[in-house]
Structures are given as structure tokens and as C-alpha cells.
Amino acid sequence: MNKLAVLALFAPLAFAQDAPAPIEHTEVAEGIYMLHAVGGVGLLVGDEYVVMIDDSLPRTGDAIVAKAEELAGRPVDFVINTHVHGDHVGSNQTLAETGAIIVAHENIRKRMKDDPELNTGPGALPVITFPDKVTFHVNGQEARVFHLPAAHTDGDAAILFVEANVIAPGDIVFRGIFPYIDLDNGGSVAGYKDAMQTLIDMANEDTKFISGHGPLATRAGLVEDLAMLVDAEARVKALIDKGMDAEQIVASDPLSIYHDQYNWQFITTERMTRTLIRSLTQT
After folding, report:
1. Is the pTM of this model over 0.85?
2. Whole-number Å distance between alpha carbons of 77 and 75
3. 97-146, pLDDT tens digit by residue?
4. Using CA atoms, how far apart are residues 214 and 268, in angstroms rounded to an integer?
5. Cβ(127)–Cβ(101) under 8 Å?
6. Which of 148, 192, 197, 205 is 20 to 30 Å from 154 at the Cα level?
7. Which long-range contacts (CB under 8 A, 24 or more apart) does 113-117 make?
């Protein structure tokens, strides 16, 4: 599935109006905000620098800039992209035009460079990249940016704000809904589970997560979502082991126990089932 299709499926309501709705926000910790756009956006505000985590869809760029400047009183200095999808990197160009420096894992730049749907101008691509980790020391915060390999994609990064006990993990967290695991962009179910466990292991009951999709999350919420994914995979694997093919597995609806809570318009119960089948059977 190409990036434009992903973007459209994630955000049908964002295209339904002539102008995007105003961006709402939640203060997660002192100077750290979650902006409620399509794709969770983080914002660190302080006396030294303004740092944004992701920047949502292309058409929300002006609204994101306006909201950040409302909260910070000045333009964004850095944008950290957590992965390659258009609902998280789509406003890079707009932010770059206001002077922001784009930072991301090296695989994000590689995937964006030759994709005209994402490489939309001279400021769209990250100008600072890292292979494993990088640390920002800004506004009295130590912000550790670290790679989570082969998870949602092959370029995922999460940001730990050490002093504030806040983590912005991009689409490693789909709180309370089926996750999108992008097998075509280097993601994997095994890597996604490992990434979720990494986040759980580094958190405590007071840690707040700026979700990639869904509400502000806690460690308990991630534990619940990971348990669902582990069990869902086991249910599908049991049917594969019985010799059932993909259509037979889908027809048997092995994830029906999770449908009422986790099904949503983009990753339906059927689509989650097919992702697990593909992951377990691909060579």
C-alpha cells in the first residue's frame, strides 16, 4: 500500500472539511504536550529550544505550526520523526520553512528520498539522521531518541524524556486498537512485540506515553495491548498449524474475542488477521 493510501485511510475525516479543525492539546508534564492531530504529536517547550515529535498530515501543517507557536511563543527548532508514514512526516516541509531542523533515523530519510508522495520539497527530508540513538539536552530535559528495529517499520524511533518520565514512541503505541504493522516498509510482528516490551520494561506506573494513535497511554495500557497481540498471533498460528489456508482462517474469525474493543476503520479485525497470517507464513 502506498503512502498516500495509508494517509487517506488513517485520516478520512481530515479531508472532509475545507480546513482542518483546530488542534487540541493535553499537557503531559511541565513543558511537554500531546497535540491531538491525526497521528499523535509531541511538543517540548522551554527557554532554550522547541522540539516537536512528528508533525501529522501535509494539510495540517499550518495548524500544527500555529498551535506550537501558541504554546511556545516562538517557532519550532527541531522536529523528530518517529517513522516514515505521511501522517507523521507529512508537514516536514511546512515546519522546515519556519526554520525547524528535521531529525530522524537514517532509514526514514532513505525511504522518503525516492518517494514523491513524501519528498515534497527541499525541507521534507531529515537533515540529521542517526543509526541507533541520539540524545538531546534541552530545556533541562535529557531526551533520549532510540531506534526500535523492524517494528512498525524499519525506521521507528521512540523518545524518552528522562526527567519527565514521558515517552513518545510513535506508532509503537496504538492504544486500545489493532496496530498497523507495515510489513512492506520493514516492519514485523516479532519486532513490534519486542518494541512494545522494550517500552514496558523501561516504564513504571507513572510513565505517560504520547500514543501514535489513540489517547495518552500508560504502562498498564501497553501491557494490555501487548497481551492482545501475543494472544492474537497464537490464535492464528494454531489454525495455520492445523493446515488451514488464509481464507479458511479469516472465515473462522479467530480474533472475534477482540473485535468489539480493538476493531477500527483502518485496521479491522479481518485486516489484523491477514497481517498475522502473512507474518507467520512469509519466507
Report:
1. yes
2. 6
3. 999 999 999 999 999 998 999 999 999 999 999 999 999 999 999 999 99
4. 15
5. yes
6. 205
7. 115/3, 117/2, 117/3, 117/4, 117/7, 117/86
Separation between Cα atoms, residue 110 and residue 21, nearest integer Å: 32
- Decide: helix, strand or coil at residue 5: helix
Residue 66 half-sphere exposure toward CB, CA atoms < 13 A: 11
Residue 146 CA to residue 159 CA, distance in Å, equals: 7
The pLDDT value given to residue 13: 38
DSSP code, position 126 = -
Asked whether the beta carbons of 104 and 155 are under 8 A apart, the reply is yes
Element (H, E) at 87: helix 86-89
Residue 72, CB-side half-sphere exposure with 13 Å CA sphere: 26
What H or E segment, with its residue span, contains residue 134? Answer: strand 133-138
Can you list the domains of the chain with their CATH numbers? 3-220 (3.60.15.10)
CA distances (Å), origin 130, targets 82, 135, 155, 184, 212: 12, 10, 10, 22, 21
